[in-house]
Amino acid sequence: MSDSKNGAWRQLWSTFFEKSWPMWVGGILLATLNICLFLVKSPWGGSGSYINWGQNLYKLLGMFHLEGTQPITLHLYGLLGVMTVLGAFAGALLSREFAIRIPPLGEMVKGLIGGILMALGCTIGKGCTVGGFLSGIPALSGGAIFLAIGFALGAFLALRYLLWEMEKLPKFGMGKSCTLLAAKGKGGIWQPLLGVAVVAFLIIGASLFYKTSGVLTWFAIIGLLLGLICQRSRFCVTRSFREPFMTGESEAPVAIMAALAVGLFGFTVIKYMGINSGFPGGVRAVATTWVNPNFWLNGLIGGTIFGIGMVIAGGCAVGTLWRMGEGQIKLWFAGLGFTLMAPISVKFIAPWFLHILPDSAQKAVFLPDSLNYWGAVLLLSVILIFWYIFVKWNERTGKFSAI
Amino acid sequence: MNFDETLDCKGLSCPMPILKLAKAMKALDSGKVLELLGTDPGSKNDIPAWCEKTGNEFLGMEDEAGVNKFYIKKA
Fold it and tell me: pTM for the complete prediction?
């Protein structure tokens, strides 16, 4: 009796923390949490975390007149990002996958450069792979489509660079590496024990925010879950754009399509019904939430720069957050580059660039304005179906795949 | 396990292990076995999946002192 009881618990634990979850399961769960974030206040995004962290850093150093910056613990996305890192840390510990993985020097340089490019791309293009795309498509934003084309173009170019680097500069990413604190073989029981403690500590920590704001509490708890789910399902938007050009496998793009389809449904309900719109101008404000003025060339250029950065770094804004929690030092450098460059780009580089770009290339396009809700959802669904047909065809034929 | 060549991907993160594996396998003769040393948790899924897709034989994985050792036989 007690044996089969233990067996059932063991099976439950194994389901969650022994093998990684299929990426599409992660996609559906993450999209559901993204809908919850929108219901609480506003949708999921990655780049806002780095912008807030960087502004706090420069405020501390007394640079760039950032006195008005909100502290990380009071900023929705500053906090969400920290909790995503910690949630992934917990997920990696629970599954005994945590280790400090120090790569060769060249890889750390690539992480830093990739992070800098992502900071430039998301501030110029007004969105990253998560806020601009994974939330932007469900938000029925026309610019999100051009961001996505940019991501694909950037991923293609950066993959060409990585292949060139392997041929021409084979020493660049080689050299001394080192791994610390790994769970060895069947041992390393300290990792899951610490993981349970981290989760308990974070939930207690999140509940303390309730005195300040219930919205912050929910962002903290959802951030924790986002990080944990991303780590367990190895949810990677970068991969979904890169893989068709690399191995051709379709698992990652299909997982992103699952997330987009669920998000599209939930966001459309919220926008159509005008949920939480009980304030002056609320109905329009909710409907146009996260419809950024990046249609069309603006999104395309920003997306391309971001796409190059994410493939060189090995993770987009959110992909970097959860890999930081897992102990990948290359991604700590990507996060550092992102954090250092984002506030500088927000203040100096993006405004200059947007000034020289014509207004007709940076419009906010809310698709239902011209197509109504049915037409907008239909258009985006058809795009998803064609994308699915393309990745499946490419997986079979390898026409666009380099290896 | 016996192997003919070894490829060090310790400390490298996605996608570098798969890119290096694809390049190393090109240079390998049919029937030879490659050992790949890696620390990226993603490789546990990626390497068997890549082998299945490319028709190379995935012989198995050993976990030793925090380093995963993957064995792949060239088709």
Answer: 0.95
